[in-house]
Please model this.
Amino acid sequence: MSTSTPLRVVPARADERIYVTQPHLAPLTEFLPYLEKIWDSKVLTNGGPFHQQLERALCDYLGVKHLALFTNGTLALVTALQALRITGEVITTPYSFVATAHSLLWNGIKPVFVDVDPDTLNLDPAKIEAAITPQTTAIMPVHCYGHPCDVDAIQKIADNYNLKVIYDAAHAFGVQTDSGSVLQYGDLSVLSFHATKVFNTFEGGAIICPDAKTKQRIDHLKNFGYVDEVTVVAPGINGKMSEINAAFGLLQLQHIDEALARRKEIDATYREMLRNVPGIRCVGDAGEKIANYAYFPILVESDYPLSRDALYAKFRARDVIVRRYFYPLISDFPMYRGSPSAHQDNLPVASEASLKVLCLPMYPALTVENIERIVEIIAEG
Ligand code: T4K
Model:
């Protein structure tokens, strides 16, 4: 149990600018003893004691067996693909942050976009098979907004076609299904600990590995392929998390439960207040047993008096900086849109969602007064 002081929540003033998120930060005074240890030891990086402690602490907290820390989620994705030697084509979702597909391009892999499910906005398993070709080697789904993909259906397809599955689980910290952590599905899962995420280490990320051997390969890959002074086993990268980030992560972990509890309350408050607002649909959960309330996406439907973009502009004019995660679709960016799978006709559900979605502010320090101000802007129409 944590012995640290409760998180100091600094709410926004009633008229203050509100952003889509605000990092959850443990009290600075609690971080100073960690810094003193680093200053005393002079161990700044390369798998030092805080790095090792955080890997163990996260395995315990998340209920997974092996985890390799990274400097950020994007390098973790790039390395996960290297670790499994993925080549050719990979089936993925257009409805995500660009890092998902960029990790494929950085490995010389062709992304093949498949549409999403209208309820969860996650990759639709029913549409995967039609996109498989002899070049397909893997599927990279995203647990969008922290809502679990249909992991069983995806695994079944992967087994039938001998494909690997790498989950972009950047949003899915702490999420559990009836069978435990959602991070244990697929061949690998990748987390992000970016400042905007539920659990942050300023920048950071991790790969969840099924066994010690895979973790060892990944540990080599994130450290130049270096095994010892005279042995380099792969053309690895530098993806190591520093001791400062790892120490901060250990401290953040002591406060994560209170942050998640507050997110749950905010989610419930939004849902209750928006229940009777015509034309506004809250994106539901995907049946997870434990959710993390990473985002609060709403869909602005055609019976709402304003267009999504008019509502977005109205929010900005009132100093509430909501975001359109995920608009544009990844498949609409110049480096992707030439591919046949990127065509809008192939992605009707994702295309529609990306034109309707707004992510409302969601972070532990958000007050009921802030939520009332946000909902009022929506309810005015
Ligand atoms: N896969 C998925 C599905 C992802 O969503 C992401 C990252 C990745 C992979 C890659 O993981 P990392 O390599 O990042 O670990 C943000 C984040 O930069 C990005 O990490 C995140 N997804 C994506 C969904 O959102 P922006 O451009 O929206 O960030 P920005 O700087 O506009 O921040 C949003 C708001 O957060 C700001 O208006 C204010 C607040 N903020 C942000 C930062 C960075 C703070 O208060 N303090 C801060 O330090 O991309």
User: Anything to note?
Assistant: The chain is about 35% helix and 15% strand. The longest strand covers residues 66-70. Residues 19-23, 72-74, 96-97, 99-100, 142, 168, 170-171, 192, 194-196, 205, 321, 323, 325 surround T4K (CB under 6 Å). The chain has two domains: 18-24+256-380, 28-250.
